[in-house]
Write a structure and sequence with these properties.
single chain, Growth Hormone, Chain: A, 78% helix
Amino acid sequence: MNPPKENLIKNILNATVLISALGYFVDIYDLILFGIVRIPSLTYLGIKGEQLISVGVLLLNSQMAGMLIGGIIFGIWGDKKGRLSVLFGSIFLYSIANLLNAFVTSVGMYAVLRFVAGVGLAGELGAAVTLVSEVMSKETRGYGTAIVATIGVTGAIFAAIIGDMFPWQWAFIIGGILGLILLVLRIKMFESGMYQSIQNSKVSKGNFLMLFTSSDRFFRYLYCILIGLPIWFVVGILITFSPEFAKVLGVQGPISAGNSILFTYTGLIFGDFASGFLSQYMKSRKKIVTIFILLTAIFILVYLFTSGLTVTMFYGLCVLLGISIGYWAVFVTTASEQFGTNLRSTVTTTVPNFIRGSVLPITFAFTTLRPAFGMIYSALLVGIVSILIALFAIYKLEETYSKDLNYLEEN
């Protein structure tokens, strides 16, 4: 017998889910904010002309390096010391970094703070998804992680609004204050009972090397990362370089990367919500991820081979691409469900950060192919490879809907 609808809603919209979702909201806000305030903040520091791009890339790479390192640190920490400790530590770190970003006086100081912010940002999503997956029932946890991702992605839109309305210093300060407010709210959150049951045991917890000592674990981990490749192909190539693609495709008007990002993230909100809830309705993570990857493939082809669009139609296509790559919620949930309690945080926190890092080889492949094949066909080749790899990876992973997560990974 199914539980009453009002009880289901109450179980889904619990304090753990809502506070975790708001934490991811602030996380995405800060992640996107730098791209929005890059030019005014660097201009304030005396950076001009071509240096705006080179210094901007340096700062972005500093943030990315921080996220890759932070993903490993906070992932291991979450398995060794608990999920809640990561949620407190990560949001404190990037909130303080955000506040200090408002007072930078040099590029070097800016780069250090973006690195620190990156370390903090790396821990938020993985710890939130791990905690929500463990405190909710196996039949409803997909709803919880979908809400975390859906509310979180709206942070990008909020960042765009705040970045446009306020000076860049105040945009950073607002993010820092929001984070510290959430830090106080998290005092009322509880640790996962599933984790507490092993907290004082002698079982190996957060041993990152365990992922490489077993071929089964290694390939599970690798496949979890690879299913996210199309997401960062779309964001890192099609959306980041949307002004250049628009010129080649003859779009009837100017296109800005900022607006393309905004409309893509608007689509992501609907995609995350739809993919998460559909995975519950269809009782399958694999089917939904496969469907959304195929949708992504279709909209990539439409994007690359439709010429003469109006500005409105082009941004509408960005929304559709955002919806199609909105399997992010199910992607991270799947990674969390693939591993035992003693490695779950390590995997769930490192996987999204490693797939974010995949934008580096993706952009390298694109820029290497572009002189020989041009914008359209170099993007097509990289996109096809990303799609095929992701489809193979999801095919190889086991179905994890309603899987009992109360088990351990043995040495």
